[in-house]
Amino acid sequence: MILTGWAARYKSLADGRRQIVNFVLPGDTCDAQIYLLERLDHSIAALTSISYAELDRDRFESLLAADRRLAEALWCETLSNAAIQREWTLNLGRRDAFERVAHLLCEVMARLRVVGLIDGNSCAFPITQMDLADATGLSVVHVNRTLQELRSAGLIVLRDRTLTIRDPEALMDAALFDPDYLHYVSTD
């Protein structure tokens, strides 16, 4: 489980091009059930300094057997991750560049809000434009233009690795963002 820091889950082609398929944020596990397989079919890279907790297989299995709520929580996270993957597929296949980037910003804010890492409408945002490009299927130039559009529209401020959403409702509308796929219970 990631305790602090940000990571990216990605796949790469033989020529080095990569597609980020998810961001791993504090409170997320990194494929908790992966021990059931021989190896990962993807990679995980730290985007910032990371601290994490790790359990060996025997300890993990005994905890799951002893605490049904823990097992259910991990299944819920697995189902939530699958829902996020479906939303990211929709993002790549049907949303335009403005909607893609706006949607990703909304998702990150929603996920960080649940773990208490939002200050008003601002959060740390260590994701580079290259990372955004690799997550949204856009070129770095297109991401840069799209971020400028979001700024010009008065929706975001992105400065010093901090994201501020100036008008959350307007950004969610622009992104066609419906947080229901995250399956979070509101903590507000």
From TrEMBL:
Keyword Transcription regulation: yes
GO MF assignments: DNA binding
Any Pfam family hit: HTH_Crp_2
Domain of life: Bacteria
PROSITE patterns in the cross-refs: HTH_CRP_2 (PS51063)
UniProt xrefs under CDD domains: CAP_ED (cd00038)
GO BP terms in the entry: regulation of DNA-templated transcription
InterPro entries linked: cNMP-bd_dom, cNMP-bd_dom_sf, HTH_CRP, RmlC-like_jellyroll, WH-like_DNA-bd_sf, WH_DNA-bd_sf
Alphabetical keyword list: DNA-binding, Transcription, Transcription regulation
SUPFAM superfamilies: cAMP-binding domain-like, Winged helix' DNA-binding domain
Regions that span the bilayer: none
Residues covered by the HTH crp-type domain: 95-169
Protein known as: Putative transcriptional regulator, Crp/Fnr family
